[in-house]
Sequence to fold (893 residues):
Amino acid sequence: MKIFLFGLLLLSNKIATAQVLPPDFVDETVYSSPKTFIGLVIDNVGRIFVWEKEGMVWMIQNGIKSSLPVLDITEKTYGVGDLGLISFILDPNFTSNGFVYVSYSLNPSLIPNHSSLEPATYGIVSRFTVDNHLSNSPSVNPNSELILLGQNNKGIPITYLGHMGGALAFGEDGTLMITAGDGGFFDDSDDGDSPSTYHNAAINLGIMSLEENIGANRSQLNESISGKLLRINPISGEGISTNPLYNPAEPNSTVSKIWSKGFRNPWTMLKIPNSGGSDYPGKFFVGDVGTGIDEELNLVHESNLNFGWPKYEGIDAIHWLRPIQYTPDIWEKPKVVMRDEIFGLINNQKYVSGSPELPGDNVGGNGSILLGDFNKSLSFPADYRENLYFGDYTGKNIYRVKFDLNYNPLFVFKFVSTGKYIFGIKVSPIDGSIYYVSSDNPYGGEGELHKISYLTSNNPPVSKIVSNATGGGSKLTVQFDGKYSYDPDGDTLTYSWSFSDGQSSSGLSPFVTLSTTSTAVVTITATLTVTDNHGSTGTASKTVQLNNNAPLILETTIEPTIAEFIVSGSSNTASFSATINDENPNNVTYTWQTFEVHNGHEHLVHTAIGNPSQLTIPTTVCSPPLESYWAKIKLTITDQYGLESSKELIFSPSCGLLTQNIVFPAIPTQTTANNYLTLEASTSSGLSISYYVMNGLVNLVDNNLQFLGIPGAVTLRATQHGDAVFDQAKFQEVTFDYLKNRNNQIITFETITTQMEPYLAINPVAFSSLGKPINYVWISGPINIVGAQIVPNGEPGWATVRAFNSGDSDTNGAYRDQSFYICPNEISINEIHKVTDSEILKLVTAKNVINTTSKVEAHTKLVYNAGKEINFSPGFEVKQGAVFESLLVGCPN
Fold:
């Protein structure tokens, strides 16, 4: 029997059914990468091309990534903020000509006379030719680049860290369509001369003219590429004669290329199938990323349309302070808008999703719309065909919408909550499955390629592993936990663990002792296989290193000192350095990343390698009462074997108003027995809190959190944007687990007394309150675990043993420790006693006699304890700064 979890939030009408996937759909991970993929295309034989923002394109076929990149333009690409390799598409005749087209932001260092302090740049659109394009190892000829847009610095102007646009699509008439962003600052205040942008450098370098120094208003200026939808010849780069402003005397001019205008940051675009002809490119949906008001799904149904930015946003929002000369008389309204709610435009009337007029789900937390693809495949049920599947990068959801013949939305339903940042969505022409690329962390995190397909039979389970250690000494006991694993059908799971050293285990969360006699770094791979009632399986792996600990950041230093609260609008440059602890500090890599953070998402500004590194904290602005901005510096240190640790520094704007603080109470572990949770953060000012989901498969409406039935870690951010009296508050975050509701058990472990010579095997006694079997594992000390017995190895000292039950699909694991002393009759010691990270006090005990010639180093606390006598022989020394004590007590009971 299949069980599907539905969560209904009765406190609000903003959320309808909240299943993570509809019944009989399954989401599989096709490929996992150490780098984030930010887009994908699928050719007509099913080969998948994915790309990284830094400038590499790869091919994935049958779950295997090409050993070499298809395209590598990393030296040309400027992959900071929202910039980088934005789009990659195949020529409609790719199988015969091997042409591919890309849009990317040019590395400013390649622009003559550029300034590293004001890295203005521009977007380029180029064609490349792929050699062996039909083979299993296609690669681009690096000398084949033909620049179609961007010759002589005349590309898409970029005066900050984003808003390039850069989406590419072919019209049905063979023309190439290109979206261009406004190239301005991220908020809605850039009318030119913005202190936050590199407009002066852009003008001096010829990227844009003096007349284009009008910020976001460039979207309304016909003489500027910014904020436009362009239509060009894919061979020459010239405008098309049927474009509305085409000038036959200047076919390569900006006005000759314009098809429509009035966009902000049109990141994605999709041609509507079979909507064009031999001399008409067709109709296009354009996803335009908004400010804090609305994300827009726009329909470009003919040429010479104006979509209103920057005066108009969404269906009915007006930016009143914009210059009147850039206000269009007529503007096109989007068909669907989304931010904290979802609305549709039906016969020019605005309706909320979930209303009788517009059925669907009204989900908040959206922040960056991206268009996906149409699915007409018979492999999907009828209700899911002829749907446009689109997503939201910030909200981490994929939605589906269907339109009538007049492009009025018929519904807007949430299709899946991915719990990850989404970058691209495409439908396979082979089997109709939906593929998408996503990441937990878009700036340097791991990337994944997923496949959503429809099954009429059993859905396979999903395996996930967490552990309490990534590295340690030569002998280490690690808890491996499958608590985030789940079955989409709600089936009972069994858990089978295998390890690359030959060990095996079972249960939800076993403890396993890993060890090696080698002095080299040894990597052990743990693999968890989960199996459902029908025999379907899912697997996941995780590694642990022996003889290696992750490096530790002890302290960071900023010279000159920069205060945590920065005067709004100022820019601060300083030398950032760190003090660390690592066995081989010279082999540690220091990576410093600077971010501009906005509400619930962030933009990577710059990456520097080295210690120290010169960094400039991004400009912070005050934007009450709807927005919060701050800057973040993240240091990640990585040793030569790949273990790492990180630390973040937060810098908030100080706008000269009263300060306020946020209190966000810790949230205990929640279970699938709970449908929702009311959040209870508060401010010292009494102003209301804005919440954002940073991680986890949940829905958020106002201060109500709705769980979707999928286990995982959830991170929430609480902000308060300020008002006319109070500065914005420093944000607070809370992380907690959301897990399957299981029975709890308690382990009782009888005391183990001090062990005297002669040492014998110990038969421990422990039991579970639920009658579950008990296992024992070494934690520390001179003992071994053999079966169910504890066997001293002949050395003295304290020992700790753990009695545990791993748990199962219906029961949580539990454990209890017992520590005891292994006490020799007599000890002879000749060593140097010194403090270690794990010891504050060192205790040496014998039943009768201690003989010593040892030295006690400074800062060490040492106690000798013998039952009869302590003999100090020549050579024994207690250095200044050490604390030494001797006792005649003997072994503890």
About this structure: The first strand starts at residue 25 and ends at 33. The mean pLDDT is 91. The longest helix spans residues 199-204. The two ends are 57 Å apart (CA to CA).
